[in-house]
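User: I'm putting together notes for a lab meeting next week and I want to include a structural view of one of the chains we've been expressing. I don't have a solved structure, so I'd like a prediction I can at least talk through. The sequence is below, exactly as it appears in our construct file.
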Amino acid sequence: MKYISKGATHIHTTYSDGTGTIKQIAKAAKKAGLEWIIITDHNNLDGLQEEGWHEGVAVIIGEEISPALGDHYLAFDIQKPIPANSHPSEYINEVTRQGGFGFIAHPDENINRKNHFKPLRWSDWDIKGFQGLEIWNYTADWVDKYEPERAPYYYLFRNRIITGPTQNVLDWWDKLNMENHEIVPAIGSLDSHALNHYFLKIFPYYDLFKTITNYVYLEKKLSPSFDEAKKQIHGALKAGNNLIINRIWSNKSDNISFYIRNKGQEAFSGSKIALNPENKLSIKLPKMGNIRIIHNEIAIRDINACEFQMGELKAGKYRLEAY
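Assistant: Thanks for the context. Below is the predicted structure for the 323-residue chain, given as structure tokens.
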């Protein structure tokens, strides 16, 4: 039996350019139904002094290594801050040297934005050594489309503005998975700052915590021991044992699944199963949606359904998109 634990990544506090303290952010996360969050302030680990349980939420501290012109990297499970003044390959290697792991952040921000926010893209898509990709970043997705002359519309209907991971990032992720024997993990993130703008708070933490969420699969319930819970969350994200869900559209049900099963085994995101003629791929959504199944970089099914099963599976890697 698998246990699902919901959490959010890529969050900024008053230790960098966010407006909330860790305790305030944890309270918002608890209210939004999350069990864990990962704070990644820019170029520091100052929040480590507060790492632990807050409001019943496991608050884990990482770092967003943030050069001024781009090439941002989310570093998890490190103990010493890593400066952003070196080549990306150097800080990627330093994360690994410290025993941590990392995800390339918002790699495909739009260079044709109609606003003054400078895109912070990842420059070298042939680089090696990193562990995974942040394939979807709420704030970057929104800013890519934001038009200042229509600011009220883009603020009020913000959850309808975002469209999901770019095709370039999905293609890169598929390519990485074809080049590697193991599964290359991905996360969905918020890049939450809750910035103050005149009399408004732009995208409060609580509001964003109800959007892009990582549903991680655990072998046991999230431990009451913080150190053990931290290992569980890190281990699941590093292995790709997660579904990336936009909870705006699934807020009435957590009954979402994507797995392969036969009479004796089952495999969820990030795991593997032996080729078997009895294998069936099963998908369940909380409401009717467009289901796309990708096998080894190629879309093999595109249907509108709430539930779907497929047999006669072939060797390779399967991925799901649902809209």
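A couple of points you could mention at the meeting. The two ends are 27 Å apart (CA to CA). The helical segments are 22-31, 88-97, 138-145, 151-156, 158-161, 167-179, 205-209, 226-239.

User: Perfect, that's what I needed.
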